[in-house]
Amino acid sequence: MTQAVGIARAHTNIALIKYWGKRDQELFLPMNSSLSLTLDAFYTDTKVIFDDTYTADSFSLNGKEQSEKEIQKISRFLDLFREYIGEGRFARVESLNFVPTAAGLASSASAFAALALASADALKLNMTPQELSTFARRGSGSSTRSLFGGFVQWDMGTGSADSMAYPIDDADWDIGMLVLAVDTKEKKIASRVGMEHTVQTSPFYPAWLETTKEDLSAIKTAILAKDFETLGQITEHNGMKMHATTLSANPPFTYWTADSLLAQEAVRQVREDLHLQVYMTMDAGPNVKVLCRASDMERLVQALSAYLPAEKIIKSLPGPAASILSQEDWQASHQKFSERI
User: Fold this and answer.
1) Is 51 exposed, middle or buried (0-12, 13-18, 19+ CB in 10 A)?
2) How many Å apart are CA 134 and CA 167, to the nearest integer?
3) pTM, full prediction
4) Per-residue pLDDT tens for 243-253?
5) Could you tell me the domains of the chain?
6) Category of 30 on φ-ψ map: left (φ > 0), alpha (ψ -120 to 50) or beta
7) Strands, E, within 108-198: which ranges?
């Protein structure tokens, strides 16, 4: 029996300049470049075992065996690595997701980034993180960015080989984020479906692409200058523009709920009352993310608790790059997960 084992952890990221729309559905090539902040509060741990005694791939998520449909998704992703080096063994994938799944909190980003890194480690692939990001992208576009920490850019590239991510800045200058988790149930419209419908039917979409190029250039300048106010203003405007494209699709749709709107209004009110630099963004889901100074987080939590339950407000600092875990780390992760449920 020959076995190859890899274990990895990757954190979620929240896009400040949004990725919204694919120009190639199979290769997951984006319509625009994007930029994100990796978060330390949410992550996925994944173990991959390639074994010549296995007769098929299998996949367990949070201790539960997954459906054939989910296994097929994982198998297609693993095939990228198997075909790359002529690997013939099937694999067992076990994943622990410390992120609410499919609720606009980028669980797929951390999931596929962790799976990519664990697979590369198991198979002893000599890849740079940038090269590995082109593989991770084929599982989930935003996972490209979760291989890195801090502020990260995903360059749209000219093709599959150069559509990759790279780090911009460590975000170690008093950066924080609050997640207002108003609804962590699975969303009704998957990001992939929403993107495709928007690209095909929204008359606002061409303007989105054009202004996002300008936003990306401006936000990188703000990050390098550590200009938090400009960073926040661009983040909020870019996020709202993305959601405007869904409202202008035909037929229109939205990821916002009534609670999303209440959370948005709470942020505006607290910003006005406390005279703090706090800025909102939302991905393809109902939850509101608040970019803020890390040193202001406690005051913000206290103020926002007047508008929504404190348990729905989750604090996060910038997260690290994806990393290899030991077997002891994996066992500790299992223990932590079992204590949560």
Assistant:
1) middle
2) 14
3) 0.95
4) 999 999 999 99
5) 3-170+323-340 (3.30.230.10), 175-316 (3.30.70.890)
6) beta
7) 151-154, 165-169, 175-180
